[in-house]
Amino acid sequence: MVTNKSGEAKNASISGMISLQGVGAAQKRAFEAESSLDEANSYRRRGDYLDTLYDLAFAFERSRSVEWWLNISLAFEESGKVNSSMLRDTADRYLRLAIQAKTYSQIILNEIGENPQLLSDADSLISKAEDEIDDYPAPALFLSLEALSKANLALELIDGVTEDKIERTKEKAAVAIDESRKLGVEPILAVSYFEFAESLEDESPTDAIVHYRYAQMIAGVFQFMTNQSAEKESRFEGVPPHSSPTKYVILVDFQLLVVVAGISALLFIIGIVLILRDRKFKKDFPPEIWIPRSMQEYYRKH
């Protein structure tokens, strides 16, 4: 069963944002089933039959979920276009961001003598994403998003989980989901993790925050991909109306005019530079994937 479902997932096609979620989730689960099956065989050879049964059961359930995710996208109208080049570029981008976030968090946490499980999880997810990105960029993308979430949270949660942190993370995820819907993309995968996080708030607050952040990241990537593929069109049709300016005769001091013009030009140039810098920063590091650059910025942000 594991082999059959894995083959179905690997051969599934992606044409838009909806199928990206279904196929990406299915392929990710197919690889998890294969890995669990390998572990089960390893335990069996060592005579550890209890762990063998556990991993076999996990592989079976993961294989069952593959078909569910492949079929769920059929219930939604496809939106947006996703080609192999766009998907690979996006997966590469978020993998690089995940690696940067993990490296930064690791440096800071080593300095204060901490090594949380979230950081180890992020490292493992990055390794898996690197293994899959060439042949299967869709699951690699979602692995990278999960790694990025955990790498950042490894720092953010170093002082513990509070109700306020849960609520703020939950709210950000809800906003990201809403923004995705406004763009015409139903973030079914993000909604799935959001609802799962809600069920974990009481019994496992840390896992709840992790899944809320992951849901936010998933919804955010659709905004990025939609903006990336959107065609820039003029708001005007044809030539806008034009009227001849009224002619006035104005007497001014020529030297004063030169000074004013010079100051205006300088202010204009400074304004353009600041705008371009701000746009570049937001493009490279949008709010939902912002990586703190120093401890001072980190504590100011949180």
- In N-to-C order, the SSE pattern is HHHHHHHHHHH
Cα end-to-end separation: 47 Å
Rg for CA atoms: 25 Å
Percent of residues in β-strands:
under 5%
Number of helices, counting only DSSP H or I runs of 4 residues or more: 11
**Shape designation:** globular
Largest sheet descriptor: none
- Uncertain regions spanning at least 5 consecutive residues: 231-254, 256-260, 272-302
Overall average residue pLDDT? 79
**Helical percent range?**
over 70%
Q: Based on helices, strands and strand pairing, what is the structural class?
A: mainly alpha
How many beta-strand elements? 0
Q: Can you put this structure into words, describing what you see?
A:
The protein has 302 residues and is an all-alpha fold. Among the domains are: 1-82; 251-302. 74% of the residues lie in helices and 0% in strands. It has eleven helices and no strands. The chain has helices spanning 2-11, 17-45, 49-72, 84-111, 117-132, 137-156, 163-182, 188-200, 205-229, 254-284, 295-301. Helix 2 crosses helix 6 (137-156) and helix 4 (84-111) runs antiparallel to helix 5 (117-132). The longest helix is centred in the last third of the chain and has 31 residues, at 254-284. It is globular. The model is unreliable at 231-254, 256-260 and 272-302 (pLDDT under 50).
